[in-house]
Amino acid sequence: MAEELKPVYLIAGSDRPKVDRAVARLRGRFAEDTVELHDAAETAGDDAVAACNALGLFGAGERLVIVSSVEAWKADDAKAVAAYLAAPTPGTVLALVAGELKKGSALAKAVAPHGEVLVWDAPQRGLERWVAEQFKLRSTPADGDACRLLVELVGNDLYDLAAEVDKLATWAAGDPVTTGEVELLVAARAGSPAFVLTDAWGQRDVAAVLRASERILERTGDPRSRTIPRVVGALTNHVGRLRAVQRLDEEGVEAKEAAARLKLHPFYVRKLYAQARNFSVDELRGATVRLAELDHALKGGSRLANDLELERALVEITQR
Q: Is residue 2, in this structure, part of any structural domain at all?
């Protein structure tokens, strides 16, 4: 049995796909010809109240009045809504849709005693958790690496990410989604992910390292003179982290405690621990020196092409 509708809903937040789904579910409770759409840019609070008080095309009956972009409303608009909600029109539901809006705003305070305030904000960090939630909503298992790769390939546009999750979930048909499916089906538009390169290097897979570096150079829209130093910087930072966890591992510090000390995600630190055990102390020290030499070469210390300098260094620091 469907839950009884309230006279007003405030649906807001930066998680636009979730906001859209909530509005769609609400609209699904009404016949299409009983839904009125308004925009706050052209509809003030008083106008929205008037729309709620007006009779529908066929007289009395259930009606839904939706006003979008209400984050632009002022205090007087919120007051008009509050006054209306003291005695709302029976059978009429007012849905106020906003972008980013604080739960303590005047409009939220006007709505809360009479209806429901639903605010969903996208995470500022750790967007892969949001992606994992989208897969879960579609009853599709997806591992953490697949979610992280999807964010790396697509970027932080939630609509783009949601569309790619839909595509992957349809393809998988209930089977787990892994990095293999993401690489196969998702076109990169945020640059190729550096972690594919660092993961391949951590496994000491020379061929995979060279493929990953070439993919980064091909997919970025920047010239190679800017991209190659970024690749070197990412590798240098990664080697530094491996050296740090290697020291902690030698001291008997477990990965969970190391994650807290380093202020990094436990999943990522567990991966660092596994990779660090593939290298000796001298090998990681040597990799740091070789990357410093590469940086010098890229800044004019070599007459060789930057691509060749990068390739030579990658082979040297990866091979056993």
A: no
